[in-house]
Amino acid sequence: MSLLDQIDKNRIPSHVAVIMDGNGRWAKSQGKERIFGHANGVESVRSCLKAATKAGVQYLTLYAFSTENWNRPKEEVDALMNLLVDTIIGELDELNKNEVRLHAIGDIQSLPDHCQTELARGMMATSQNNTINLILALSYSARWEILNAVKSIVASGLSADGITADTISQHLTTKSFPDPELLIRTSGEHRISNFLLWQIAYAELYFTDTLWPDFREEDFYAALLNYQSRERRFGKTSDQIQNIPVEGDSNQPLRLV
Ligand code: FPP
After folding, report:
1. In a domain, 97, yes or no
2. What is the pLDDT of residue 239?
């Protein structure tokens, strides 16, 4: 029996974010160059998206290229950009067939022109799809994002008293998406690495030793099952949580007081 059958369909996180890590180590273990690991990581992206779609996740954010990744050797950066472009072009039909809507967050203007063009084309071509939103974080870092949010809030002329947590959320690149309830990181590393720092304030964190190129559907379901085994308290006591009436979907976000 697949782990998918054991998942409570009424308690699926609406947004799952993933730090895809371990491509380099996976390639090294095969005696290959790092880019071989990235190339094999594309199959894991497919599996992860498939699993998220089957489970009913509505938003899947993948950390595909961080601001810090620009410091990698030029050949690796170029290869990653080409892989991104080839993947978007090669997967477009499949994305449309499965009603996947593509989005990108990050400093998109810093990407090479051909990447920006294909990304824009991919986002436009999938803009009517509404089964699942696939959000690629590219040239992204949370500090970059928060810094830009602060700058744009200041530029908007809002007074300090007029700024709320919601103002900040509305100035982030993720303003159209709910916050992730679950963050997965592969490869045994237990770090957040400048990813969605504001948005994961209440997310459950799930770390797996599996290297990204080995990540498959069952690994995603294992993360969902682990998520469902946890009690989400949002700073409240367990008694308070038990007394909160939850209408319909028990995964409704609880409002902080
Ligand atoms: C981290 O592994 C992974 C990346 C920096 C890139 C992720 C890219 C892909 C999975 C391929 C393409 C993705 C899309 C969306 C088309 P690492 O190189 O840091 O591995 P290491 O920690 O073992 O060195």
Report:
1. yes
2. 79
Quote the pTM value: 0.92
Does the CB atom of residue 45 touch ligand 1 within 6 A?
Answer: yes
Ligand 1 atom with the shortest distance to the CA of 212:
10
Which of the residues 69, 96, 194, 226 is marked catalytic?
Answer: 69
Does residue 112 form part of some domain? Answer: yes
Q: Under DSSP, is residue 227 helix (H, G, I), strand (E, B) or coil? A: helix
Residue 231 has a pLDDT of 76
CATH number reported for the structural domain that contains residue 150 in this entry: 3.40.1180.10
- The response to whether residue 23 sits with its C-beta less than 6 Å from ligand 1 reads yes
Active site residue 21: yes
Domains contained in the chain, number: 1
The protein residue with its alpha carbon nearest to ligand 1, atom 22, reads 22
pLDDT band at 1 (very low <50, low <70, confident <90, very high): confident
Among 8, 21, 226, 251, which one carries the catalytic annotation?
21
Q: Is residue 235 part of a domain?
A: no
User: For 217-240, how does the pLDDT look when each residue is reduced to its tens digit (9 = 90+)?
Assistant: 999 999 999 999 997 777 777 777
d(CA 125, CA 115): 15
Asked, for residue 257, whether it belongs to a domain, the answer is no
- The amino acid that residue 73 corresponds to is P
Atom of ligand 1 nearest to the CA of 213: 10
**CA angle, 178 then 179 then 182, to 5°:** 120
> Residue 213: which pLDDT band, with cuts at 50, 70 and 90?
very high
CA dist., res. 182 & res. 224, Å (int): 8
Structural domain including 43 reads 3-230
Look at residue 42 and tell me whether its pLDDT is greater than 90.
Answer: yes
Give the DSSP per-residue string, 115-139.
HHHHHHHHHHHTTT--SEEEEEEEE
